[in-house]
C-alpha cells in the first residue's frame, strides 16, 4: 500500500473542489463573506447541534476573540464553507481600559473567562510573537477537511516566523495531529465543562519541504 503525504492529500482534495483560504484584515476584505459563513457554521454546530451556551446574534456565533486582529482559516467545497478555525498571535491584546483580552487559553488560566476552567495548563501560557493559538475549529463533512486546515495553518505560521502553536480542543486532536506526523505536547490535564472535554496542546511549526501548499 502506498501512503499519501499530507501535501498529496491536500492537492488531491483541491482538485476535488476543496479550497482553504487564509483571511486577515485589511488585505483580505474581499473574502470577508467567507468569515461570515464560518461564524454561521460555528453557530449551527456549537449552538444549534451541540447546545453549547455560547453568545450568538441571529445566525452568527462570535465573541471577543473575533476581532480584526484575528486571522481566519476557512475551508470551502465548491464555494460553500465546510470548516474553519481562527488564529491569534499570543502577544496580541484586544479591548480597551479594564476590558482587555489576550487569547483564550491564557485568559482562561488567568481566571477571566468564567465559562472555562482556570487550571487548563500546568504553567502560565506564553505571550510571544512566535507562538500562536488555534481555537473554534469546526468541520463538517470529510475528515480530510481538518487535515487541510491544519496543513494550511502550519504553512501560514511558518511564513509568519512562528515556532509553535497552541491548540484548545478535544483530546482526540492528538490522534489527528499524529496522523499528520505533527508531534504534540500536552500542556495540562483534560478539563471539562458543559461543552464537553478539552485539553491544551502545543505543536511545533514544522518544515513541509520545498513544495508549499497553495492558498486561494
UniProtKB/TrEMBL annotation:
Catalytic reactions of this protein: a fatty acyl-[ACP] + S-adenosyl-L-methionine = an N-acyl-L-homoserine lactone + S-methyl-5'-thioadenosine + holo-[ACP] + H(+)
Top-level lineage group: Bacteria
InterPro entries referenced in this protein's UniProt entry, alphabetically: Acyl_CoA_acyltransferase, Autoind_synthase
Keyword S-adenosyl-L-methionine appears in the UniProt entry: yes
A Pfam family it matches: Autoind_synth
Presence of keyword Transferase: yes
Gene3D superfamilies associated with the record: 3.40.630.30
E.C. number(s) listed in UniProt: 2.3.1.184
Family of the protein in this entry: Belongs to the autoinducer synthase family.
Name recorded for this polypeptide: Acyl-homoserine-lactone synthase
